[in-house]
Amino acid sequence: MDNILKSHNKALLETTFESDYLYDHPLYSLMAERTELAWLLIIPKKSLIEADYIGSLYSEIYRLIFELQKQGFGPHFNLAKIGNKNPNQHIHLIFRAEEDEVWPDAVWCHEPLNASEITPQKLKSALKGFFSP
User: Fold this and answer.
1) Three-state DSSP class for 117?
2) Which domains, and CATH codes, for the chain?
3) Is the pTM of this model over 0.85?
4) Contact indicator for 1, 25 with CB cutoff of 8 Å
Protein backbone atom coordinates (compact mmCIF):
# COMPACT_ATOMS: atom_id res chain seq x y z
CA MET A 1 0.00 0.00 0.00
CA ASP A 2 0.96 3.62 -0.50
CA ASN A 3 3.20 3.05 -3.51
CA ILE A 4 4.76 6.25 -4.82
CA LEU A 5 4.67 6.50 -8.60
CA LYS A 6 8.13 7.31 -9.91
CA SER A 7 6.72 8.78 -13.12
CA HIS A 8 3.86 11.23 -13.32
CA ASN A 9 3.37 11.20 -17.08
CA LYS A 10 -0.19 11.67 -18.27
CA ALA A 11 -0.66 8.23 -19.86
CA LEU A 12 0.61 6.35 -16.80
CA LEU A 13 -1.53 8.39 -14.40
CA GLU A 14 -4.69 8.00 -16.49
CA THR A 15 -4.17 4.25 -16.77
CA THR A 16 -3.27 3.79 -13.10
CA PHE A 17 -6.16 5.83 -11.70
CA GLU A 18 -8.72 5.45 -14.52
CA SER A 19 -9.29 9.22 -14.32
CA ASP A 20 -8.60 12.29 -16.44
CA TYR A 21 -5.25 14.05 -16.07
CA LEU A 22 -5.67 17.77 -15.40
CA TYR A 23 -2.46 19.47 -14.24
CA ASP A 24 1.04 19.00 -12.93
CA HIS A 25 2.29 20.83 -9.83
CA PRO A 26 5.78 20.51 -8.31
CA LEU A 27 4.26 18.71 -5.30
CA TYR A 28 1.55 16.62 -6.97
CA SER A 29 -0.33 15.71 -10.12
CA LEU A 30 -4.04 16.46 -10.35
CA MET A 31 -6.62 14.07 -11.79
CA ALA A 32 -10.43 14.16 -12.03
CA GLU A 33 -12.92 11.32 -11.78
CA ARG A 34 -15.53 11.07 -14.55
CA THR A 35 -18.54 11.67 -12.30
CA GLU A 36 -21.17 14.37 -11.92
CA LEU A 37 -19.57 15.17 -8.57
CA ALA A 38 -16.46 17.37 -8.70
CA TRP A 39 -14.07 14.63 -7.56
CA LEU A 40 -10.33 15.24 -7.74
CA LEU A 41 -7.44 12.89 -7.09
CA ILE A 42 -4.23 14.45 -5.83
CA ILE A 43 -1.25 12.24 -6.59
CA PRO A 44 1.67 13.16 -4.29
CA LYS A 45 5.17 13.08 -5.74
CA LYS A 46 6.76 12.03 -2.43
CA SER A 47 5.83 9.79 0.43
CA LEU A 48 3.62 11.27 3.12
CA ILE A 49 6.17 10.67 5.86
CA GLU A 50 8.18 13.93 5.66
CA ALA A 51 6.60 16.65 7.81
CA ASP A 52 7.83 19.53 5.61
CA TYR A 53 6.46 17.90 2.46
CA ILE A 54 3.13 17.09 4.11
CA GLY A 55 2.78 20.68 5.33
CA SER A 56 3.55 22.11 1.90
CA LEU A 57 1.28 19.62 0.13
CA TYR A 58 -1.73 20.24 2.35
CA SER A 59 -1.18 24.00 2.19
CA GLU A 60 -1.39 23.74 -1.62
CA ILE A 61 -4.43 21.47 -1.42
CA TYR A 62 -6.26 24.07 0.68
CA ARG A 63 -5.29 26.82 -1.80
CA LEU A 64 -6.84 24.61 -4.49
CA ILE A 65 -9.99 24.10 -2.40
CA PHE A 66 -10.44 27.84 -1.78
CA GLU A 67 -9.93 28.59 -5.49
CA LEU A 68 -12.59 26.10 -6.54
CA GLN A 69 -15.00 27.26 -3.84
CA LYS A 70 -14.60 30.85 -5.09
CA GLN A 71 -15.73 29.52 -8.47
CA GLY A 72 -18.85 27.88 -7.07
CA PHE A 73 -17.74 24.32 -6.36
CA GLY A 74 -18.93 23.01 -3.03
CA PRO A 75 -19.83 24.51 -0.61
CA HIS A 76 -18.78 21.41 1.30
CA PHE A 77 -15.84 19.15 0.56
CA ASN A 78 -14.48 15.79 1.63
CA LEU A 79 -10.72 15.33 1.82
CA ALA A 80 -9.41 11.83 2.47
CA LYS A 81 -6.45 9.56 1.92
CA ILE A 82 -7.97 6.10 1.58
CA GLY A 83 -6.26 3.81 -0.91
CA ASN A 84 -8.28 0.65 -0.25
CA LYS A 85 -8.83 -0.11 -3.95
CA ASN A 86 -5.70 1.40 -5.50
CA PRO A 87 -2.37 0.84 -3.69
CA ASN A 88 -0.76 3.93 -5.27
CA GLN A 89 -0.66 6.91 -2.94
CA HIS A 90 -3.43 9.42 -3.67
CA ILE A 91 -5.73 11.82 -1.87
CA HIS A 92 -9.43 12.29 -2.69
CA LEU A 93 -10.94 15.78 -2.80
CA ILE A 94 -14.67 15.77 -3.47
CA PHE A 95 -16.84 18.87 -3.56
CA ARG A 96 -20.28 18.27 -2.13
CA ALA A 97 -23.61 20.06 -2.09
CA GLU A 98 -26.86 19.15 -0.41
CA GLU A 99 -28.34 18.57 -3.88
CA ASP A 100 -25.75 15.98 -4.97
CA GLU A 101 -26.81 12.45 -5.80
CA VAL A 102 -25.72 10.80 -2.54
CA TRP A 103 -25.95 13.63 0.02
CA PRO A 104 -25.43 13.31 2.97
CA ASP A 105 -23.87 9.85 2.67
CA ALA A 106 -20.22 9.15 1.94
CA VAL A 107 -19.49 9.02 -1.79
CA TRP A 108 -17.49 5.76 -1.67
CA CYS A 109 -20.50 3.87 -0.26
CA HIS A 110 -22.60 4.61 -3.34
CA GLU A 111 -20.52 3.62 -6.34
CA PRO A 112 -21.17 3.58 -9.21
CA LEU A 113 -22.02 7.28 -9.36
CA ASN A 114 -23.58 9.10 -12.27
CA ALA A 115 -20.90 9.35 -14.94
CA SER A 116 -19.90 12.60 -16.60
CA GLU A 117 -17.22 13.46 -19.14
CA ILE A 118 -18.05 17.17 -18.66
CA THR A 119 -17.11 17.56 -14.98
CA PRO A 120 -13.37 16.95 -15.52
CA GLN A 121 -13.44 19.54 -18.32
CA LYS A 122 -15.19 22.06 -16.05
CA LEU A 123 -12.60 21.50 -13.33
CA LYS A 124 -9.71 21.89 -15.79
CA SER A 125 -11.20 25.11 -17.13
CA ALA A 126 -11.87 26.49 -13.63
CA LEU A 127 -8.25 25.83 -12.61
CA LYS A 128 -6.53 27.13 -15.72
CA GLY A 129 -5.56 30.44 -14.08
CA PHE A 130 -4.55 28.69 -10.86
CA PHE A 131 -1.99 26.53 -12.67
CA SER A 132 -0.81 29.15 -15.18
CA PRO A 133 1.82 31.60 -13.90
Assistant:
1) coil
2) 10-131 (3.30.428.10)
3) yes
4) no
CB atoms inside a 10 Å sphere around CB 24: 16
Strand partners, 94: 39, 78
Residue-level pLDDT, tens digit, the chain, 133 residues? 578 999 999 999 999 999 999 999 999 999 999 999 999 999 999 999 999 999 999 999 999 999 999 999 999 999 999 877 788 999 999 999 999 999 999 898 887 999 999 999 999 999 999 998 6
Q: From 56, 116, 63, select the one nearest 93 (Cα to Cα).
A: 63
Taken in order 68, 72, 75, 81, the sign of the CA dihedral is: negative
Contact between 42 and 28 (Cβ < 8 Å): yes
Q: What is the DSSP letter of 5?
A: P
Nearest one of 10, 14, 131 to 67, comparing CA atoms: 131
How far is residue 109's CA from residue 112's CA, in Å, rounded to a whole number?
9
* 3-class DSSP assignment, residue 132: coil
